[in-house]
Amino acid sequence: MLTLAILIPLLASLVLAFVPLGEVASRWTATGAAALSLVALVIVWAGGGDGFRAVAEVPWIPTLGIAWRVGVDGMSLALALMSALIFVAATAWPLKLHDARAYYAWMAFLAGVSIGLFVTLDLIVFYVFFDLSLVGMYFLIGRWGHGDAQHAALKFFVYTLAGSLLILIGIIVLALNMPTLTFDMRAMIDSPPLAAAGMVPGLVFLAFVIGFGIKTPVFPVHTWLPPAHVNAPGPASAILAGVLLKMGTYGLIRIPLQMMPDTFARWALPLAIVGVISILWGSIVAFAQDNLKRRIAYTSVNHMGYTVLGIAVAGSALGSETARQLAMTGAVVEMIAHGLITGALFLIAGAVWQRTGDYHLPNFGGLAGPAPRLTGAATLAAFASLGLPGLAGFVAELHIFLGAFGVYPWLAAIGLLGILITAALFLRMLRQMFFGDLPKERAGFTDLDRTETALLAGVLILVVLIGIWPTWLLSLIDAASLIPTPGAGG
Amino acid sequence: MIWALAYVPVLAGLAIWAIGGTRARLATLGAGAAAATLGLALFSGDRTGRFVWSELLVLQAALPPLAHAAALLVPAILLPITLYAASHEDGRGLPRLIGLMLVFTGGMELVIVAADLVTLLIGWEIVGACSWALIGHKWRSQAPGLSASFAFVLTRAGDLGLFIALMATVTATGSASYGALGTLDGWPLSLAAYGLLLAAVSKAGQVPFAPWLFRAMDGPTSVSALLHSATMVAAGAYILARLHPQLSAAPGFGPAAMVIGLATAILGGVVALRQTHAKKLLAGSTSAQTGLMIATIGAGYPGVAVLHLIVHAASKGALFCAAGVAHRVTDTFDLRRMGLARALPVTTALTVIAALSLAAVPPLSGGWSKEEVVKALEHAGPIWAAAIIVAGGLSAAYATRFAIAAFGPGEDRDSTVKRGELAGLALLSGAVLALSALWWPPVHDVVAARIGADLPEGSRLGLLASLAAVAFGILAGLRAARSDTEAPAMEWLGLPALYEHGLIRPFHALAIMAARADDRVIDLIPRGAATVAIFLADGLSRADDDTLDGLAPGAAGAAMSTGGQIWRGAVGTAVRATSGLAALGAGLGERLSDLIPNGSGRIAGMAGADLRRLQTGLAHHYYSILVAGFALAVGLLIFGG
C-alpha cells in the first residue's frame, strides 16, 4: 500500500512527461495522483497498529544490505499524510503557466519522492529520495519561478546537495558499523551502532546535524531559503516550506536521535541552543522584511527552531520522561502544523502574486475591502502561525515549551520571546496587507475564487481541528515510542 | 454543560457574523445569545468538566461560587451593551462587531470556568485576539490597526508570564490543574505566582502596561464599554482573585500586588483627572479602579475585589455608553465641548447615577464596594490605607469632572438619544441602582456568603477619612470641570513615549540590522564555501597544468616507470625537446601532416591526455606533437626492434 502511495505519483509523472495532455488534464492527472496517494495513506492509517506498520520489503542489493523497504510509524505516517494533503492542495491550486504539462510532471514526481522519503525504511533509498526531491524542486523553481529564479534555484540545489553529501557519508559510516552490513532503519534503531563515546560518533553526528540542519534550515545555514521562496511559484513555495523542510527535522529525529541516542544526548545542549538562536533570529529578521514571501520564509526558520529545540530536548536524556515526551510531541506536531499553516500562507502569497505580480508589503493595504475571503484566510493562518490557542501552532509550541522547561528552563524562557516577536510581525503583515487605505493600483483586486477558497478552507479546517481537539493527532504520532530508552545501545 | 458557557457564545457570535441583517435583527439575535449565555451561567453553578486534550494535558473546568459570580456578570453586562451597539455603532461591519463581541465573551467565560492553567491560557489568549479584532474594527483607517497591534503585543508580553507559570507548574508537579498549583512551594511557586501576576497586570492595564488601554480607545465605544467592564481588563483582576488561595503563599506576593495596584490607582487617577478626551478619562479610571481590585487581592480579600469588579462593571459600562452618545451628538470626544444636560436630560440623569457610583458616593453601590476596599487595605496597614484614601479622592474628582463636563449645563441642542442606546444605558445604570442594595446588611451578608467573600471590619476613622476624601474629590472635580484645562502634553505620564523610544524603535532598528547582517554576513557561509571550492578547483587545475608542463626531460625517465604516465610524460618531454625544432620545421610539419590523416593525429593527441592544449588551436604545437609522436614511434621501432 505504501509502495503504491509512492508509485502512483511517479507513474503519473511519467505519463505527464510522455503523453501530450492539455493544461487542465495535466493538472487533474497530477492532483488525482496525489489524492490517490493520500487515499492509500489514509487506508494505512485506518488499519491502525503500533510501531512500524504496513511494512513491505523487496531485496535490491542483498550483498550491501540495501532493499526496497517501506513501513511507517506514527510520526512518518502523520508526515506523509500531511505531505500528500499539501501536494493535493498545491497541485490543484489554479495557476497560469507556460509548459504546464512539464510543471505538473515535476509536481507529481516531487509528490512521489517526498512521500517516499517519509515512508521508506532503507537509508539508501531515503538518501536517494532526499536528493531526488532537490532535483524536482530545482526545476520547479528554476523553470517556473520569477525574478532571479535560476540563481535562487542553483543556490538552493548546491547548498542542500552539500548537506546531503555529509548525510551520505554519515549513513555509510553508520551502516559499516552495524554487526552485519545493512541499511535497514529498523535494525539500526533497535541496536544503535556507534554507541561508544569518541571522535567518530561525534563527527558522524556533526555531519548529520549540518546536513539536516541545512535542509531544515537552522541558523546559520538558512540563507538559501529566502531567495528560493521569493522566486518560486506560490504552490512550489508551499511544498518547499510545507514538505521539504520537514525532511530535515524528520531526518534529525529518525537518524541521529533514534540511531545514535547516546551521542545525541551528549550533544543535545548545543543543538538546543542552535534551536533557540533560530527561533529568535528567524523572527527578528522576519520582522524587518518588506517582502511578503521573505517575511513568511524567515518565520519558517523561527518555527523550525521550535522543532529543533523540541527534538534536542527529547533526545537530551535529561529531565523527566514526561518532559521529553512533551517536547517530542510538540516537535512532531510543529512539523505537521507548520506544514499546514505555512503551506496555506504561501498559497495565499501565490494568490497575491497571481493578481498583482508584487510582494512588496508597503505597496499593499486595504485588501480587506475587495477580498474578504482572502483576508479571513490570511488572518486565520497568521494567527495560527503566531501560536494562538485553538489553532494548531499553539498545540505544538505549548508542548515544546513545557518539555523544554523541564530540561533547559533558561532556553525555554529565552525562546518564549519568539512567540512575542512572531505576534508583532504577523500583525504588522496583516495590517500592511489588508487594513488602511486601498492603493489605487489595487483597485481591481479580486477575491479568492471558488477553487482557491475550497483548497485553503480544507487546509485551515485541519489547523482548527488540531488546535481544538489535538488528541487524535497526538495518539497517531505516539511520541513516547519515538524516544529511545537512554543507554539502550550502550 | 459547563463548556457550553464558553462555546455557545462563540458559535452564536460566528453565526451572527455570518447571517448579518438589520439593526433590529442584530439587536435581537445578539441580546438573545447574551441572554442564553446568562441562562447557561445560572444553571452551571458547581459543575465541573474535563476534556482530554492531549495525552499529558487534560483541560478542566469548574465553577466555584466566586467564579460563578463572574460567569453571571459577563453576559449580564454584554446584554445591554449589545442593545446599545446595535443602535449606536456604524452600520457597516455591524454583524462582525456584534459577532466578535460574543466570541470575546465566550473567551472570557473560558477564562472564568478554567480550572487548570492550559484552559486558562487558551481563554486568555483568545480574549487577547478578540480584543485585537475589536480594537481594529474600523480597519479602513490607519490608527485602529496600529493600536490593535500595540494592544495585542503589549498584553501578549504579559501572557509570557502565564506561559512561565504554566511551565513551572507542569515541570514541578506534572499537572497543570489549579489543585497542582496549590501544592507548589519554593521557586516553582514564586515563578508561578509572579508569572501570573505579570499576566494579570498586563491584561488589567496596570503600570507599566497601562498605555494599551489608551490605544484601545481607537476601537468602537461599545467595545470599550465591554472591554473595560466585564472582559479583558476584568480578566486580569478576576484571575488573581480566583487563584489567590494558591498564590498568596509566594513570598512577597501580597505586597507586590498592593504596590502595583495602588501605584496604578493613584497614577491612573492623576492621568484621568488631567484628560480632556472623554474616553481616555474613563480609560485612565479603569486602570485606577482595577488597581484598587488588585490591591485588595494583595491585602487578602479576593471576594471584596470581585464585588468591586461587579459594581464597577455596571457603572463603567454605563459611562462608556454615555460617552458614546455624547460623541454622536457633539461629534467630538473633547470634554470641553460637550455640556449636554439640557439637550439630553434623561441620558444625563442616568449618567450622573453611574458617575456618582464611580465617585463612591453613598448610598450608591460604588460607595459601598469602595468602603469595603478601604477596610480591606486598613487591615494591611495604615500606609496602604492612606494610599487608597488618596486614590478614592482622585476617583471622586475625575468621575465628577466627567459628569459635569460632559453632561453639565450647556446649550440646548436639537438632539435625541436612540432607543437602543437608551435601553443599554438605562439597564446598566439601573443595575448600578439595584446593586446599591448592597448597603443593606442582610443583602450584603447574603451575597458575601453566597460568593464566599470575607467582609473586612473597618475603623470609624478610616470611614470618615475616606468620605472626607471623596467630598474633597468632588469639589476638586467640580472645579476642574469648570476650568478650561489644557490636554496633557504627555499621554499616560510619558509611558507610551517610553515604549516608542525605548522599545519599539530600537527593536525596529535591531531587526533591520539583523536582516542586513543576515544578507551580508550569514550568507557569507555558503558564499565563502563556494569561493573556497572555486579556489580549490582553480588551484587543482593549475597544479594539473604545472605538473604536466613541468615534466622536465630529467623527470621523464622516472615517470616512464608507470604505465599511465609514460605516454603523458613522453609527450611532455617530446614537446619540450622539439619545441625549437618545431619552430624551424613548421613547414616540414605541414608536409608531414598531409601524410598522416588528421583523425589519427587527433586520436594520438587524445591518448596523450592533453586535450586542452590540443584544442587551443596553436598549429605549431599541434604539429610539433605530431612530429614528436612520429619521431618517437620511429625511435621505438629502431631501438625497440
TrEMBL record, chain A:
**TM spans (from-to):** 27-47, 77-95, 102-119, 125-144, 156-176, 196-214, 235-255, 267-288, 300-319, 331-353, 374-395, 407-430, 451-472
Q: Where is the NADH:quinone oxidoreductase/Mrp antiporter transmembrane domain?
A: 122-422
Q: Which UniProt keywords apply?
A: Membrane, Oxidoreductase, Transmembrane, Transmembrane helix
Q: Which domain of life is it from?
A: Bacteria
Q: Does the keyword Oxidoreductase apply?
A: yes
- What molecular function does GO assign, one term? ubiquinone binding
Q: What is this protein called?
A: NAD(P)H-quinone oxidoreductase chain 4 1
UniProtKB/TrEMBL annotation, chain B:
GO terms for biological process, alphabetical: ATP synthesis coupled electron transport; electron transport coupled proton transport
Q: Which residues form the NADH:quinone oxidoreductase/Mrp antiporter transmembrane domain?
A: 114-392
Annotated signal peptide: none
Q: Enumerate the Pfam families for this protein.
A: Proton_antipo_M (PF00361)
* An annotated GO cellular component: membrane
GO-annotated molecular function:
NADH dehydrogenase (ubiquinone) activity; NADH dehydrogenase activity
EC number in record: 1.6.5.11
User: Membrane-spanning residues where?
Assistant: 59-85, 97-115, 121-139, 160-181, 193-214, 221-241, 253-274, 281-301, 307-327, 339-361, 381-401, 422-441, 461-481, 622-640
Protein name (Swiss-Prot/TrEMBL): NADH-quinone oxidoreductase subunit L
Organism encoding this protein: Palleronia abyssalis
Localization terms from the record: Endomembrane system; Membrane
Q: According to its UniProt record, where is this protein mainly located?
A: membrane
**How does the entry describe its membrane topology?**
Multi-pass membrane protein
Q: What does this protein do?
A: NDH-1 shuttles electrons from NADH, via FMN and iron-sulfur (Fe-S) centers, to quinones in the respiratory chain. The immediate electron acceptor for the enzyme in this species is believed to be ubiquinone. Couples the redox reaction to proton translocation (for every two electrons transferred, four hydrogen ions are translocated across the cytoplasmic membrane), and thus conserves the redox energy in a proton gradient.
Entry keyword set: Membrane, Oxidoreductase, Transmembrane, Transmembrane helix
